[in-house]
Amino acid sequence: MCGIVGLHLRTPELYPQLGELLSEMLGEMSDRGADSAGIAVYGDPVWSPPGRGCVSVTDLDTVPDLGPDVDVVTVDKSFLLSADLPSEQLLDRVRAAYPEALIAGFGADLAVLKGVGHPRTLTERWGLSTAQGWQGVGHTRMATESAVTPSGCHPYTVGPQQCLVHNGSFANHATIRRDLRREGVVFDSENDTEVGARFVAAQLAAGRDVETALKELCATFDGFYTLLVSNHDSFAVVRDAIACKPAVIAETADWVAMASEYRALSGLPGVESAKIWEPEPEVVYAWTR
What we know:
The protein is of the alpha+beta class. 22% of the residues lie in helices and 31% in strands.
């Protein structure tokens, strides 16, 4: 099972409503995965202050203290760190000081929250309905490939400002994991989705665009899947060769949205006039801010 939602706003007037809209979308997917959930929000001025490097940390027993130049916002069991330096430098400081911490995400304008529990309960604890921004991605999980822990939650944000959420399973993930480990890639979980996320991150780091990276994933991975990949300014969706896992895309002049089922899109403003379709197998649909 599992449920995916994503919302890419084109109209700045809607930015203050991002969290409210995303909360409802994620809640509608709760019965597709009620054991855990995660979100990525791009552009909230409190969670990821503009112009600062940002790192999202979870699964840590104490509030991180990296000095007076690093600000910390506590959101439930997660810590959103920001500083006036590049996100990668801040990430290095976090890893050096707290090697046991789970890095949920990093990159300018990005905040990532993950948790174990019912998605509606989690969004309330996070205060997601008050979040702002231009783009949000969410996932509700029904665990099949690894333990129900924060490290098993999506989104996987293993590259700067990059997020990947996944519904389905990769049949050959163990082989690809071994190949990536031989190249020096380090994993945080046994989740098959993380293999896909790190594969895409490696493709992007090599200079490929997201469409090429996802086409390469389709050629490399076996299994049944719907994937949504986002970064700071883009939003992309792809399905496997037989489009086994459900997906619906809706588009208006004001927004683009995707979900595992239409009911997660039904409350969006202007959806009654949206162009709505089911994505074709192995076709990459991408939008840029």
